[in-house]
Design a protein that fits this description.
Length: about 80
């Protein structure tokens, strides 16, 4: 597709990298506590100069097309 000029090279930048971090707290953790704890981790990550964007999924589904699954209160 790139040879045909349909997709430009900027869509596949070699400098961009993606990482995933899964957090699992004690099973008694509430969604509110999960959110507070995860925000602390997010704030630390966002302070790193290499980080441009951050996406979080607090207690939401981790699998399924369009996130149609059921989440867990203790997982981010």
């Amino acid at each position: 597709m790139m040879k045909q000029g349909i997709i430009g090279k900027e869509m596949m930048s070699t400098g961009d990298q993606e990482s995933s971090l899964n957090l699992e707290y004690d099973k008694t953790t509430t969604v509110q506590e999960n959110n507070i704890r995860t925000q602390r981790v997010e704030n630390f990550i966002l302070q790193q100069p290499e980080v441009a964007t951050l996406f979080s999924n607090i207690a939401g589904p981790s699998t399924g097309i369009g996130s149609l699954g059921v989440g867990s209160a203790n997982i981010s």
